[in-house]
Structure formats: C-alpha cells, structure tokens
Amino acid sequence: MTWFAKILLGGPLEPDVVIAAERAGFVRVDEPLRQYSSFFLRLVTAAVIATAGVAADSATTIIGAMLVAPLMSPMLGTALAAALGRPLKTLQTFALTLVGMGVVILVAVGVTAIIPVAVDMSTNTQVLARTSPRLVDLIIALASGFVAALASVRRDIPDAVPGIAISASIVPPLCVTGAALLEGASAAAWGSFLLFVTNYVAIQVAGAAVYLMAGLGRREFSVIEGRARKLWYLGVAFMALAVVGSLATTSFGIVRANDELRRAQEAASAWVEGTEYRIARFELEDGELRLEIAGAGRAPRAERLARSLSRAGLELDELSVAVVAEERIELD
To answer: What is the mean pLDDT of residues 204-223?
Structure first.
C-alpha cells in the first residue's frame, strides 16, 4: 500500500468497508427487493419534491429533494465496479442509472402536467440556475464526486454525506429537463440535461481516481485486469472531453453576453445623462435591445444611442425605444 493511499484512507483498506460500498452502489445485490424498492421509492419521492420545488421556485424544497435522492448510489457503483474490474456489474449499475434517469424525467413531466400554473422557463430562478452549466459546475461536481467516493471507503466521514448530496446536483436538473420538455422549451431541456451529464462524468472521473488510488485495482480486489476497465475509462475520457467542450462554449458565451450587457448599459446611461429622463426598462436578448425611458421635456434621440452602441462594438439586430412622458407636479 502506497503512502498516498494510507493518507487517503487514513489507514489500511478494510475489506468489510469495500463490501459495504459494493452493496451501497448496487455492485453487490444480496437483498434485491429491499435494495431496489428503497432506491425507487426514494427516487420517485425525490423527483416529486424537486419538481414541485422547481414549480414553486423554492430552493429550500429542492435542497430537501437532494437529501432524499439516491441516484448517486448507482453512479458511484459504476465507478466502483469499473475499478474492481467487473464489466458486467459496471454495465448493470450504468443501466440502473439510465432507468433512474428515465423515472425522474417521467415523474417530472407528470407532476408538471398536473400543476395548475405553468412553469415559466424564462423567469424561474431554479430553472435558470440549471440550464446554463459552466466549467465551474464541473469543478464543483469533481470535488463532490471525490468526497462521495472517499466517504464510501472510509468509516470516519459519514457526516459529509448530506453536504455531498446538496453540492452534487443530480435529480433537480433531470426534473427541469422533464418540465422543460412538457413546456416545449428545448434549449432549457438540453441545458439542464447537460448539467446532469456533467455531474455523471465528474463522478466517474473522481470516483475512478479515488478507488484506484485506494488500491481497489489490485489483484486481491480486482476480478479481471486490463481490457474491460481500459475500455470503460476510455469511454469516460471521451465523454469528459465532450462535456468540457460544451461547458467551455457555454461559459465563454455567458462571459461574452455579460460583457455586451455591461457595454449596452453604459451606453444607455450616458445617452440619458444630462436629460430629464431615466431608464425605466432595459432588456438585451438575442441581439435585440428594448428600452423604455420615462421623464419630462425633450426626449433624447434614438439615433444618438444607436451611434453610441455602434462605437461600443455592439452590432444589434434591433433597437426599440419607448418614451413614457411623466407630468411634473409642483406642490406648494
């Protein structure tokens, strides 16, 4: 056992802890009715709570769903089975994850359908927080997956499990995907699904790192060596590259959009400066800037704003300015 593995585990790797981790991750199924019934009952309950939390725009409710949701178990189980060199168990836990994903999305669609008020995909903060994943979300997921895998092979850090459940956003993005599909918001559905895939890939990468560094790939633990494990890790590496590329594109797009928003706001503020008008509404979306100014007296000309925006490097498809006259009342 290497010195790093001793530090990682706080001592020798205990076989009974490995067995418990196998059972928790569905690599070892010795009580199928108990294990699977617990998994699906908790999963459906978590999906209902999370979808209701999304509809109510309630972060507290969604946190409660994260604590109930068990979907990380087979995800960690896949990483564990791969490290142990058990290709059949790797595929079985991966299949269980896929079935769990489908259950969550279907439950989310059903709950969203019976909610009397439609979920607004453009203003709901719980939706918006999960439809534009960034590289920072991958970093969070990697750290969460690392601690989750570590907790599964150490007895002394079970108190970290609730924090792991909250930090690793797994079920809520799938609920947003289901709600978005029902509402016909394909972009939101793709964005939230990408966030889930990001978490899945991060858990596989971090889990593999922890389990292999802990020595679970050694002959006394591993059933077979070599090819099956390498094929799985090659697939995970390919998925990781695809995820990083997608997140980088999204992240750079957000940075660019924020920069354009800042420059447009500065130009608009300078445009009304020195007049008796103020900006009452400001919207910049998809190359269209919609402004509403309110005040008294002579309104500033929209052509001057268009020139200012052009000098700021903003090429807009449409500029719309609405002027609202306000009557000044002097009180004695």
So the answer is: 79
